[in-house]
Specification:
single chain, globular, mainly alpha
Length: 69
C-alpha cells in the first residue's frame, strides 16, 4: 500500500533552513518523533501542528498537503 503524504513539514523545514533537530528541541520532542512527522509515518496533533507553524513563522495551512484543486 502506498504511503500518502499528509503534511509538508519536511519541505517547510528545508525552505526555512531549520533542522528537524532544532525543531525537536524547540517543541521538547524527540528527534525521532519529528523524523516520523517528516516522513509522514505519523501525524502531529493539531495543537502541535500549530506550534510548528508558529516556530517556522508560517501559516498552519502551509504545513498541510493540498487535497482539492
Amino acid at each position: 500500500m502506498e504511503k500518502k503524504n499528509h503534511n509538508r513539514i519536511k519541505a517547510v523545514l528545508a525552505e526555512k533552513n531549520v533542522s528537524s533537530k532544532d525543531l525537536a528541541k524547540q517543541l521538547n520532542k524527540t528527534e525521532s518523533t519529528v523524523s516520523r512527522w517528516c516522513t509522514n509515518d505519523v501525524q502531529p496533533s493539531i495543537p502541535v501542528l500549530s506550534q510548528i507553524a508558529e516556530i517556522l513563522d508560517v501559516d498552519v495551512r502551509e504545513l498541510l498537503v493540498k487535497t482539492k484543486g
